[in-house]
Write a structure and sequence with these properties.
Length: 228
């Protein structure tokens, strides 16, 4: 399988041959610009809740949204591991949710230094832009299935991949479930390609039986290929 967290889903599709690097680069530029334009600076926010599971995070997010003046958005955006959930939405609602999370036992609840409230309903204008951009972009069947962010299930049909990439703009990244989906189907080793070891750390907190290998440099690639 291949899988990628948020923007990394495009990298995963490149690795599996479903997208060319050039097409992925064009799509990601469009995605980034559309997300920036979707919500004025300062209107939205995201916060990481540490020490709460997904159900508890959703509860405080829903409560915070209802406490506003009406029409405010606050929802779970990233289910990263059993005790780390990121929420996203209107800044005032996210701030209320962070305060509620601390009252409900969160170890930490901190606003993130992001430029927009990603993976929530406020990104709907960006989803429309991406639907048009993806319709114009060829997508091939991947060499191995993609475990999609928004469904936490494998997919190989190009039309379905295209639809799920659009849904991903406003939908939650179900990373914890993605990792468990692969583990339940016999995956015992995850190879993280990119800068750093963030996803490896999340995977170990999701299931300690998983082996993780981070590949950050050409030397790492050479070492890894020599070990298989």
């Amino acid at each position: 399988y291949v899988a990628g967290h948020s923007l990394g889903e495009y990298s995963a599709l490149c690795a599996a041959g479903a997208l060319t690097v050039a097409d992925a680069a064009r799509l990601l530029r469009t995605r980034g610009e559309a997300m920036q334009k979707a919500v004025p600076v300062g209107v939205g926010a995201m916060a990481a809740l540490l020490g709460l599971d997904l159900a508890a995070a959703r509860e405080v997010a829903d409560e915070a949204a209802k406490e506003g003046n009406g029409g405010e958005v606050c929802q779970a955006a990233n289910d990263n591991d059993p005790a780390q959930v990121v929420i996203s939405g209107h800044k005032a609602a996210v701030e209320r949710a962070a305060a509620l999370a601390k009252e409900r036992g969160a170890k930490r609840a901190m606003l993130l230094p992001v430029s927009a409230p990603f993976h929530c309903a406020l990104m709907a204008p960006a989803a429309e832009v991406m639907a048009e951009a993806l319709e114009r972009t060829p997508i091939d069947a991947p060499a191995v299935p993609l475990v999609a962010n928004v469904t936490a299930e494998s997919v190989a049909d190009p039309a379905t991949i295209r639809r799920l990439l659009v849904e991903q703009v406003t939908g939650a990244v179900r990373w914890r479930e993605c990792v468990l989906y692969m583990k339940e189907r016999g995956v015992d080793t995850l190879v993280e390609a990119g800068a750093g070891r963030v996803l490896s750390g999340l995977a170990r907190r999701i299931d300690r039986d998983l082996a993780c290998r981070a590949i950050n440099t050409p030397a790492d690639v050479e070492s890894f290929l020599g070990s298989i």
